[in-house]
Amino acid sequence: xxxxxxxxxxxxxxxxxxxxxxxxxxxxxGEHLMADYIESTVWDMLGEANIPDIFKDMIDLGAVNxxxxxxxxxxxxx
Length: 78
Description:
Elements: H1 10-28, H2 35-48, H3 53-56, H4 66-77
């Protein structure tokens, strides 16, 4: 089900908007991207970035449809 620019929600769209090229390159390199891998990578990136907490609170990563993103990158890599 998609209702925000073709994605499940705004959070999923934002992750794809800003990190989609990175994950697509990983998929194109033959990595089998699973939803758990994408989620943990995003959480790691967020933890390593020097971003004030106020900005971290502006996206609910718990709402991201990680499976939708994994399916998208795998289908585009095929």
